[in-house]
Amino acid sequence: MLRMFAVAAAIIAAGYVYLPAQESAAKIDTVVSASIAKPDSKEFTVSNMENGAVCIVTRGKPLSPRSREVLASGDCEQVWPGLATARNWTDNGDGTVALTNDGGEAILTLGFGDGVEYESLEPENAVLALNSIG
Q1: Do both 55 and 6 map to the same domain?
Q2: What is the CA radius of gyration of the chain?
Q3: Do 46 and 98 lie in a common domain?
Q4: Structural domain boundaries enclosing 21
Q5: Short-list 91, 44, 96, CA closest to 72
Q6: Domain with 114 in it: what CATH number?
Q7: What is the reported pTM?
Q8: What residues form DSSP beta bridges with 88?
């Protein structure tokens, strides 16, 4: 009987030592990393190389598989006429991007730049560069 009591006491004592060690162990993070979304928007500085004017354009949430929302600051009108009314960023599928207004009229056509992220292609007299912020 004494022997059984000693074994039971040893098991209980071991349990008290083992349980606190388990509680202090690192907890598993149950958050799935894919549940943390990437931001839908990306900001660009738009620079007019001729007059030195600069503004910020934000490429926002997707509207379709090829198109995204665009928000241009009010001072973009000094960078390029009509740029402040840009509302749509459309990937043309050929390496170019069209910035259009609410009516679908093209304001600028951009292409991948040399030394800048995008540069203006059309209209021909536009000398603009876009670089992402951050």
Answers
A1: no
A2: 30
A3: yes
A4: 2-34
A5: 44
A6: 2.40.128.10
A7: 0.70
A8: 69, 100
Question: Scanning the structure block, which residue is given the tokens 């738009």?
Answer: 46
Structure tokens at 92: 């043309």
DSSP state of 1: -
Answer yes or no: are the C-beta atoms of 131 and 44 closer than 8 Å.
yes
- Digitized pLDDT (tens) for each residue of the chain, 134 residues in all: 555 555 555 566 555 555 555 555 556 655 555 555 456 789 999 999 999 999 999 999 999 999 999 999 999 999 999 999 999 999 999 999 999 999 999 999 999 998 999 999 999 999 999 999 97
Pick from 70, 67, 48, 45: nearest CA to 59: 70
Q: Token pair of 17, please?
A: 């030592």
What H or E segment, with its residue span, contains residue 76? helix 76-79
